[in-house]
């Protein structure tokens, strides 16, 4: 009997094993996860779950019993400590060695932490990535306390929004010239700067963190401009690194993650990868897509190809973020944009930003405007690029752009 092993019990790993069974694979499947909880959704952790608006059980992608019902061996609370690609074996942290016929690496990504030399290991310094992070952080979210957020990306801003809604005093420090600089246009940065400031969040841009202050627990921070802030705790959101710790010593090719071909196969013919840990080909570029949509789609494609289907993976990037009462929906990928055109919404809280590279539409940021998002997504996936003046004219019926 063939044995397929999947390392990483997150969104990608769970989607992959489900697809294997749905496609009729009747061999042995083992899904290995480092956490003790069954596979769950991550996006709500920094939003509804941290706000106390979602119970833990609602996070789970499937009831734990589902895996046994589908004859999937779910190994939780253990990590894969070594991979021998030549022998086709994986050694687990509990000492067991698994032999496999096909292997999938869905090892995700881990948050970057601040160096200990600048206070990164002080008590009261948190990251926001997994369920344990959210559960540890939740008791800190007490009205009247002071939160320092290091990093003005989406994770940092989502955490800042939750804290502000719960009545904390929040300061966001971003070393770059503007929040969201790595992932969005100045127009989108300005929208979210205004949004946070309107809710009392202090945004400090263009200034870095020199060090966190405190003896055993963080009490504040000294910034690169010489100013000091007081804080009861801090959340660090300075990006993530792909989970390549198992792949690299096994000799798999890396390129900003585990390098995959168009079939999600790694440099080893018996190993596939999917999700945040994997780098893939998209529009003649090699990228990593950190999103739920990609985790699901890439994992399901990998499952098909582990079964020998030979299906090429063509990602269709989309993302979202919830902050305060604003839902941001992003269609496409804004790599190498050279112009952004703003379409006003029907209310001041609505807007959409249309990214062009030359005369080609490549992405849309839609704030509280699901119609602009859906139309933009369909246009991008169809390879159609309306004239930007027409697309962003409020008098233009968006659906007319699809005709």
TrEMBL record:
Keyword set includes Oxidoreductase: yes
Listed GO CC annotations: cytoplasm
Organism: Limimaricola litoreus
Top-rank lineage group of the source organism: Bacteria
Domain FAD/NAD(P)-binding: 3-299
Residue ranges occupied by any Reductase C-terminal domain in the UniProt entry: 318-402
GO molecular function: oxidoreductase activity, acting on NAD(P)H
TM spans (from-to): none
Cofactor(s) of this protein: FAD
Name of the protein: FAD-dependent oxidoreductase
